[in-house]
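User: My advisor, Dr. K., asked me to get a structural model of this assembly before our group meeting. I'm new to this, so sorry if the format is off. These are the inputs:
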Amino acid sequence: MDLKHQISDCNDCVYRSWAFKHLSTDDLVVINAKKAEKFYRKGENICNEGDPVTSFMYLQNGLVKLFKTEASNRQHIISIARPKDFIGLLSVFSNTKHVYSITAIEDSTVCFVDLTVIKNLIKTNGDFALDFFEKISIISESVIKTRIDINTRQLRGRIAYILLFFAQKIYNNDKFSLPISRKEVAELIEMSTENVIRVLSEFRKDNLIQIEGTNIKILDMDRLEKICNLG
Amino acid sequence: MDLKHQISDCNDCVYRSWAFKHLSTDDLVVINAKKAEKFYRKGENICNEGDPVTSFMYLQNGLVKLFKTEASNRQHIISIARPKDFIGLLSVFSNTKHVYSITAIEDSTVCFVDLTVIKNLIKTNGDFALDFFEKISIISESVIKTRIDINTRQLRGRIAYILLFFAQKIYNNDKFSLPISRKEVAELIEMSTENVIRVLSEFRKDNLIQIEGTNIKILDMDRLEKICNLG
DNA sequence: CGCGGCTTTGATGTTCATCAAGTAAAGTGG
DNA sequence: CCACTTTACTTGATGAACATCAAAGCCGCG
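Assistant: The format is fine. Below is the predicted structure of the whole assembly, which you can bring to the meeting.
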């Protein structure tokens, strides 16, 4: 499927039932008129810290990272968003400017809906408002939880956590290709690149995982979960 | 003022203009009928992890902490909420059970409004919905930001950050009485109690602050901000 | 081909938690 | 009200966890 050239009608959108189930056909016509679907190749920038918030962004396909860049140029990855996630978190309501930058870490399709349209729907369609808010809350709560989970663990626990995260939450498979570099893993779980590599090697030597470049296979899920839970 | 026995009518609530400016007198009558105002002494528990979410909670007065308790019994403080904050974060929309425990760290008054009433207002009053989302989003975004700020600093930077937090965000005064113990500071910024004390002593020796028990006075704001910003 | 970025391993030093031990403060029961 | 227990606070010493530095191999790309 060539995502680049897929232009869908909201009415037929595969995700309609997920995010917009309480919208009438009339509502969808309005959205359809004010939406833009954009394709991004892996590595392409979707928005930058400081950009004005004008659209509500919905990840249809792919994988993106939210991050902040420090004065020293070091990056901190706040979260990784999956298909069906509203990206940009709560900024749509709390800010006029984006707080984080967003970049595709896999080929991705993002649907942009004009923010005034969404706000108007919230005003006029109460069921949609509740639904919408539930979704956005779940995503933001999970960001908070993940940050805490990571920061309360030490290195081995963090690596285990992130491996399980990709295997269980993202790819739903023991075997996957890590979409981010070792350096980015370091930026995601707040440790040095060298130590990310060191712990991964340790895990390999301990027969917990198998690594070939970016390809990772989890060999002993039980033990990995134990390491994750014990910190 | 004896907070314990203050029972207010929503219509006269000093915070009406802040949180509920888009509600009609009729709406307020409904809320008034379904609300409870409760007073908690410092140290008293307001809700526990796992409790069902039935009310929307609004901090009228005082200061509370949100925290999680680990299996090992160590606590992690997620955030400190101020008057006018909606406490309980996004759980009202994303969960049926509370994710965090909440305890008063100063004498506090919490207003509980039945959740079905709030949800109904969101459905029927679009202006209220938008307003409400904006407030709750600002609070949750700020929790995410604070967690990142803390976790990207090392010990001296963290202590500086938290001192500035209390001075600027909570008390709006260079001189204040720290409402939490050294141990709780440690739980808030993820370091050991001993090191909290050590760094505070260092700051005292460097004439950055003055300490007498829980009373703290910031002597050199500029230098403290520099330490905070440099990590 | 050569340059820059990512990866990997080893050596070194810093930052930090933990342990130990003592003092002060605050609650508790007789 | 006092002895008693517990909890908070404080300082120093030790070792573990971790970042940083250094050096070398490995691609991908102009």
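One thing worth pointing out at the meeting: Residues 1-6 of chain B have pLDDT under 50 and may be disordered.

User: Perfect, thanks a lot.
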